[in-house]
Amino acid sequence: MCTAMSFTVANHHYFGRNLDLEISYGQQVVITPRNKPFNFHEVDDLNQHYALIGVAAVMNDYPLYFDAANEHGLAMGGLNYPDNAFYADSKAGYKNVASFELIPWVLGQCATVDEAKKLLTNVNVTNRQFSPNLPASPLHWLIADQTSAIVVESDRDGVHVYDDPVGVLTNNPSFPKQLFNLNNYRTLSANTLANTFSDQVNLTDYSRGLGTRNLPGGMDAESRFVRATFNKYNANWPEHDEIANITQLFHVMHSVEQQSGLDQVATNPAKFEYTIYTVGYDLDKGSLYYTTYTNNQINCVDMNKVDLASQQLTSYPFINQQAINHVN
Ligand SMILES: C[C@H](CCC(=O)NCCS(=O)(=O)O)[C@H]1CC[C@H]2[C@@H]3[C@H](O)C[C@@H]4C[C@H](O)CC[C@]4(C)[C@H]3C[C@H](O)[C@]12C
């Protein structure tokens, strides 16, 4: 499972993502500069494009992005959508883009969600594999800029592009069902509540936080969708303090993280999914902040510190070593 969300705090814009999985693909933080060509199989190559920063597995010098943001503050993440995602063969008259090409194709040439929506009209997400040992993954995608968000789902009946008014995405079921399910939680509250049970029954407010008692705590994707959305909208944001905002963003993302041991992998019962990494993109500055499961310290990679006019990928392996601050 995974969780992604966009945040806007006063005039600061962020995009967060947890990658929950039991295996690693050797992913790193990867910056693709403007002149490193993106070659696609059926749509036009992008020889010059917007620069990207994100998390990717680099195979044959090709960045297979899990999530990324471009220099204009458009961000995108691919999240598991098993049993629902359907990728078709190439179809005449469509923009045929393989699932693994979608992130560079969109972020390479769109600066905003509106531009992405236009580009995505008439797209057909194809079932082409990157290589024989990397079959296409069943994904859906969250795309967000500083002001809005959309979700892209390629189902059996075609590609859907939904407005995402809450800027959150997890996994199954499909996005419209996740959004509708929020209605079931409309009485959740971060406030101290009155007794609406009955004025004939004496019920006391015996503990702080009772308004969140029915906030779902599960690892499942529906629970995380509700929890992530509630926590995002109710978190106090310091607004003008960048470090405090980043810190709060990580608190929200970690409120839906998967602790190892809680989510068994059905096909491999000895394994458990866990939050391998959490990223928080500063969409205004082009910085990527991250923590990993074994390193709670927030690390930062700034895309503007590399030569964005070059042609070479720059990769930074995740720092997984826990940094304990020994005080005596
Ligand atoms: C599985 C990952 C999503 C995390 C998630 O939702 N896990 C839940 C697993 S489960 O439902 O609970 O079983 C996704 C996110 C990005 C994906 C990767 C990226 O799409 C990049 C390439 C794309 C290639 O087609 C396949 C390998 C791959 C390297 C993908 C492997 C895998 O599908 C990743 C890592």
UniProtKB/TrEMBL annotation:
Any GO molecular function: choloylglycine hydrolase activity
Protein keywords: Hydrolase, Lipid metabolism
An annotated GO BP: lipid metabolic process
A Pfam short name: CBAH
Domain of life: Bacteria
Gene3D superfamilies linked: Penicillin V Acylase, Chain A
InterPro entries: CBAH, CBAH/NAAA_C, Ntn_hydrolases_N, Peptidase_C59
Pathway annotation from the record: Lipid metabolism; bile acid biosynthesis
Signal peptide: none
Assigned protein family: Belongs to the peptidase C59 family.
NCBIfam families named among the record's database cross-references: bile_salt_hydro
Protein name: choloylglycine hydrolase
Species of origin: Limosilactobacillus coleohominis 101-4-CHN
